[in-house]
Amino acid sequence: MGLIDAVFILDDKDSLVFEHIVNSSSPTYDYVHAQLLRSKRELATNKGIDLSEKTKSLFDEDSSVSLECVVRLDSNWLIAWNRVDNVCILALGSVEPGYIEVYSDDEEEEGEEGDNEAGQDETDSQQVMKQNASKDRSVSYSVNPMQYLQFFKDFAFVTKAFLETDTLTVSDIESYSYRIAMILQEMIDASYPYITDLNQLRELLPDNSIIKKIISTTRQLQRSATSSLHPMNQRPHASQATNSNTMFVTKKASIFEKSGNEIPWRAVNLQYTQNEMLVDVIERIDYIIPSTGTSIRRESQFNPSSAYYDLQTVNEKRSKRVLPTVANIQGKIEFKSSLSGMPTIQMIFDSVHHHLGIPTFHKCVDLPSWISKKQILEFIPPDEKFTLMEYNIDLLEEKSNYSNFIGLVDAEMTTGLGIARNAFEIRLRTNLLPTVENVEDLKLDIYLPRATSPGYTIKVLRITKGNLQMKRNDCYEWIFDKETVTGLSCTLKGEIRFEDQIDADFTDDPSFDPSKVKVVKPRFVRVSYRSKGSVPSGITVKAVKVLSGFSSKVKPYKGVKYTTLTGDYILR
């Protein structure tokens, strides 16, 4: 019993697609599902929510009733879960005791000698002292959810690489269940994560074409099974080593025993005809702006030139840009190399004086060099694309102007316009940058207030670029071209009305009192886009060098690409 005693993979309806049992005493998935359903119903009951018609899956994205990432099923078992593309992965583990007694051999011997000397005359006070000493030797133990999250991340990455897919689907899991079972057999040992590195797993597991041949026919089964382990047969120290060498290998760390490679993330004896190094700097911006308003000249509310109201009554002097509640950049540097031998790479980048928080690195990075030199990474790269570094920049904690680092697209929304105070205006700009030609997939999702029948709709007053269309009952999309030029400035003005009052004129109603009207505005607007050629923080890679382990006569191709994505870019 340990951290991972079983792994279950589910579809979007919580149906079991694949299971891998590590511990035979593990409960079935039916029991796990029943306990999770009970836990979610308890959460819904405590919040006064009817769960019967609200969810089709225990792990849906309904934020009102959501399960924790690690859920305790009973006194013996707990479950951790994580969504990966179109499937949900569950890891079943056992509940460990709250503390573990730890004794050394010396302590036991001292305890025996003391007992012999004292005999049977030990007093009550001495007993209490021994009990307190025993408590001091206890080590507390608790489950860290990050252990499960890291396992899910490694498992998803390895599985996608072996199945040669970018997205895990139910059909992939069903078609290659034998492959996934072999992966988990190596990744989990004694109910704990064991070998999780992709390159080492590639050395240990047979080629997929060999497996298909074995499954399709039993002819020459022994020969096929032997040839499928060709990476191990090619290693002289694993199959042809002397007894003394074998004893030496046994003394090494157990994680290297099977593959025999002291650098598990990179295969040995790699040779390429075309050597290259490719760097991807990717940043995602999270930017949440609180609600702002516009003042209205009350003396000009009823303008006879308009049946409803004249937008000229809006005071053009808008309030200053308010401080965002969130201004955050999440970045990562991905690296892909096709280099012969065992090269040591040095990457130098400019952080533009940003504080990168507490960055995380791939295990190939030489941490002492980073600590001593900063902005310089030295590493022996794996033989595939990998995430070299991840960092986080909180723009609100920096002394510099946060508005200079929010990306190419700048948007602001003003609400409470008009006599009925149900009009809003969104202004959007795409900034000019020499390294960026256009902005891709630019759109704004406008979420309307929740209402029963009849629902709300938007009456467009002015739109200077793009198209406005309904996405669903409470959401509209302001969509632009696939590629939108930089330097663009556009405006969307609209009114939020009930569906059955789309053409109503409130000034015709004698009971209409503008002083008692409440503001009707969008709940929030979500901005999304992507661009290539720059990142919001301005971080750049200055140089990529090969320090050693590579022929000086060969000059590898070097390329750097910058990509900007949006996370929670929201106007309220």
Automatic annotation (TrEMBL):
Keywords: Membrane, Transport
Stored SUPFAM superfamilies: Second domain of Mu2 adaptin subunit (ap50) of ap2 adaptor, SNARE-like
Lineage per the UniProt record: Eukaryota, Fungi, Dikarya, Ascomycota, Saccharomycotina
Localization annotation: Endomembrane system
Pfam families in the cross-refs: Adap_comp_sub
Main location: membrane
Leader peptide range in chain numbering: none
PROSITE patterns according to UniProt: MHD
Compositionally biased tracts (Acidic residues): 105-124
Keyword Metal-binding appears in the UniProt entry: no
Domain of life: Eukaryota
Species in which this protein is naturally found: Brettanomyces naardenensis (Yeast)
Protein name: DEKNAAC102677
Domain MHD: 303-572
One Gene Ontology cellular component: endomembrane system
A biological process term (GO) from this entry: vesicle-mediated transport
